[in-house]
Amino acid sequence: MKVGILGGGQLGRMLLQAAANYDVTTYVLENDANCPAAHLCHHFTLGNIQDFDSVYNFGKQLDALTIEIEAVNVEALEKLEQEGVKVYPTPAAIRIIKNKILQKQFYQNNEIPTSEFHITQHQSDLLQHISFLPAVHKLGEGGYDGKGVQVINTEKEIESGFNAPAVLEKKVAIAKEIALIVGMNAEGKTIIYPPAEMIFDPVYNLLDYQLSPAKLEEKQLWKAQAIARKVMSGLNSPGLFAIELFIDKSGDVLVNETAPRVHNSGHHTIEANYSSQYDMLWRILLNYPLGNPDEILPSAIVNIIGAEGFTGDVVYEGLDEVLKMDNVFVHLYGKKQTKPGRKMGHVTIISSDYQDLTHKANKIKHTLKAVTL
Ligand SMILES: Nc1ncnc2c1ncn2[C@@H]1O[C@H](COP(=O)(O)OP(=O)(O)O)[C@@H](O)[C@H]1O
Ligand SMILES: [Mg+2]
């Protein structure tokens, strides 16, 4: 089978690493010939994943298509789907998810627990919602890695809101953020990975440190799984999805957002689970039996983020020391240039002992740095 991936970042790179186990010819479309996935696919095409003609011409030679980022040209995918190309996730699911307004309405229409919200078109619309604050303003389209998300606590902060279609969500008193990776095959059979629990870097709003399986009360796990199943039955799309959830201070479980693709919260599944999220997506795309999502051992992920004050050709300080640690797996994404906050790689730790995970995660955070000479 000829299978294409829209986007050539690190998620595409890890997806291609898993493809090497199977009988598949891989194609990547991305507008940077040196992107992380460019040298791991069989066929690389230089082009813009948001452009109709680029996506359509890329896709029409293929049997199946998937994405590693949701900011793609959905119209081209719809045409390809009509012409018989298998597009997983479906263009209809991508259309809902890629726009945060449509996504929130989807949760509302399907009675899936999520924070209350209002839709705004202009920054000045926020004046009508003063009594709704504190809230979180999210750009409908075009946001990525925390850009496009703005906390608005008081009337004074309204000027940091977006002057474009956006959703204003009630600010949740978050006790814990978790994510569930979910897969669905063409027959509608679903699998759910054990939840991951995360901590964010307050400066860059990037995932900073993660543990899996998350430590949850049984009831919270059930609620989270029930929400995940509802999201999947509502989207009704084969593919691999990540569902980000909040557990609030009163113990309620709310969906934050869904990603229609392999996800940074599932990196650990490469070493820590029987079938990784990447392996699972290939099984779905190639119509093979679903894999086993269970964990082999608990795990932690530490992201390697470009250090503050360094821009230019990357060097990895402390790499040798980390490579000497037991049950620690280093993944560098092959990006030549670092800049503050850029995702350069991640490290997975596996251990049956959560204290060992936390200890090693902290050690790695303080040892391994993406800097320049
Ligand atoms: N309604 C909310 N209440 C409180 N915090 C929120 C809310 N929505 C988002 N956040 C915080 O902002 C982060 C980024 O928001 P998210 O919608 O996940 O955007 P992104 O597309 O950048 O991942 C979340 O992980 C969470 O920490
Ligand atoms: Mg998010």
Compose a concise summary of this entry.
By secondary structure, the chain is an alpha+beta fold. It is built from ten helices and 22 strands.
Description:
The protein has 3 domains: 2-87, Rossmann fold (3-Layer(aba) Sandwich), CATH 3.40.50.20; 116-170, 2-Layer Sandwich (Dna Ligase, domain 1), CATH 3.30.1490; 174-371, D-amino Acid Aminotransferase, Chain A, domain 1, CATH 3.30.470.20. 25% of the residues lie in helices and 30% in strands. It starts with a strand and ends with a strand. The mean pLDDT is 96. It has helices at residues 10-19, 52-59, 74-82, 91-98, 100-109, 218-235, 269-272, 277-285, 319-323, 354-367; strands spanning 2-6, 25-30, 43-46, 64-67, 86-87, 117-120, 135-139, 149-152, 166-170, 174-184, 190-192, 196-200, 207-212, 239-248, 253-259, 299-305, 312-313, 315-317, 328-332, 337-338, 343-350, 369-371. Strand 4, helix 3 (74-82) and strand 5 (86-87) form a beta-alpha-beta unit. By secondary structure, it is of the alpha+beta class. The strands form 5 sheets. Strands 10, 11, 12, 13, 14, 15, 16, 19 and 21 form a 9-stranded antiparallel beta sheet that branches. A 5-stranded parallel beta sheet has the order 3-2-1-4-5, sandwiched between helices. Bound molecules: adenosine-5'-diphosphate and magnesium ion. Adenosine-5'-diphosphate is lined by residues 115, 136, 138, 143, 145-146, 149, 169, 171-172, 174, 177, 200, 205, 244, 256-257.
